[in-house]
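BUG: 3D viewer hangs when loading the predicted structure for this chain

Environment: internal workstation, default settings.
Expected: structure renders.
Actual: progress bar stalls at 90%.

Input used:
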Amino acid sequence: MILADNEKDRRIALKKLLPMQRADFVGLFKSMESLPVVIRTIDPPLHEFLPKREDLLVEIQHLEDTKPRSPKLKALRPLLARVEELHEQNPMLGLRGCRLGITFPEITEMQARAIFEAACIVKKKGATPHVEIMIPLVGSIEEMRNQTAIVRKVAEEVFKEKETKVDYMVGTMIELPRAALTADQIAEEAEFFSFGTNDLTQTTFGISRDDINNFLPAYLKYGIFKQDPFATLDQAGVGQLVKMATAKGRNTRPTLKVGICGEHGGDPESVKFCHKIGLNYVSCSPFRLLTARLAAAQAALQEQQTGPDLHTGTN
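C-alpha cells produced before the viewer hung:
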C-alpha cells in the first residue's frame, strides 16, 4: 500500500489489508465484550513502516559492488526511491495523523470499514460492542469534519450491508495547541476528546521527546525544570491547555467525554490533576495501571475530605 504511487493501486493493496484489520478488531471486540473500545486511525508517518534510507543505501551499494546482477537490486531500488520520496525533515510534524487520512482518504475508509464490519460480526454473535473511533493530530474543525464525514459514510454503508447497527462515537486526540485553543469548534464534530499529552507536551514546549535527554540533566540541575515534563504533566502550561480545552469543549457539547492517554496517565500527580479539572478517565500502559488506580482513588478521597474545587468542578 505504501509503495503504491496511485489511488487505484493503493485501493487494491488496502483490499488485501482489510480482512487482516477486521480479524484483529473482531478479536478485540470479543475480548472487551460490552466495554468501550477506542481505536485510533493511522497516526505514524508512512516512512516508519519502511526500511531506513541509510540501511538501504548501504545494502544497494554492497550489492552493486559484489553482485551487480543480483535480482534483489531490482526490488531495492524502487523501495529506496519511495523512501526518499516520503522522507521529511521533521516527520513528527509532517504527513501523519489526520493528514494521512485527508491526503489518502481510502486509508480512513478501509480502517473504518474494518472496524464496523468487525463490530457487526461480533454483535450478531450476541455481544454489544461500543466503538469509539479517534482521529489523531486534529488542529481544526475542518480536519475533524473531513475525517468524521468519511467514518460516518462508511458506517452507514456497512450497517446497510450487514442489516444491523452498532453504537459508536467519533472523537479526536488533542495533541496540538491549536486544537486546545479551538476546542469549542472541534467539539461541534468530536463526541469525545483524548488528550495525547506526549505530543501536546512536545508541541507546547517545542521539545522533542527523543532528544530532551541531551539537556534535561542541566535543566534539572539549575531548577529550570522541577521534573521531566514527559514524565509528570506540566500543570502550569500544558495542564492549562488541557483544562481550557475541556471547558471550551464542554461548553459546546456538555456530554463531552474527556480523558488523557500517554505516559502521564500513569503518573500519580498527573492523575490527581486530571481528576481535579474534571476529566472522565486516564489511559496508561498496563504496567502503570495499579499506580494510576491508586492515584485516582487518593484524589477521590481527598475530594471527599476537602470538598470539590469550585473553579474546576468534579467528575
